[in-house]
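Fold it.
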Amino acid sequence: MACTILLYEDNLQLSESIQTMLRLNTAITLAGAFQSPVEINKHLDEYKPDLVIMDIDMPFMNGIQAVTQVRRTNKDIPILMLTVFDDNQHVFDAICAGASGYILKKHLSTKLFIAIEEAMEGGAPMSPSIARMVIASMQQEPRINNFYKLTVREQEVLSSLSKGNSYKLIASEFAISLDTVRSHIKKIYEKLHVHSQTEAVSKAIQEGLV
């Protein structure tokens, strides 16, 4: 089944280039391409995409504002940000707002489909520099007691999720099967009373669980 994607990019030349790449991939259906995300909630209802690709710097409403708006009502859809520079506050703010990861524009030709696949598998593609910023932010939060009664392994898996690791990477990190990873994540969701990776990571950061 094809992955349905919405694209938000105000640079017409770049947008057309990305659209061409997406349309040449038979595993992807490009549902729509827009220069601004001001009507993104309407578009999500209309096109029901599996994933969103979003430029950070756009007029009228930037990508960070758009992610924040989407996450008020939709916690699950993967959102990949497009950016020129990876080591900056804007990328960090986008991740904190609920973005699933990002793609550097200069690497689109080689990394676009890898990032899409990783995001669809539950991962969060990001560079080590941004991962360090996220971890540093998490470490500034006061730790609290394990109110949710997570096991040691569940805490380890949650911490790995918070670093943006995919299910495959988590399985490799702890030498367990993908089914075991999914089982741990299902129990984590139940204990934290959440329904998605974004909600779980957000709650873990806010409450100092990782």
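The CA atoms of residues 22 and 28 lie 6 Å apart.
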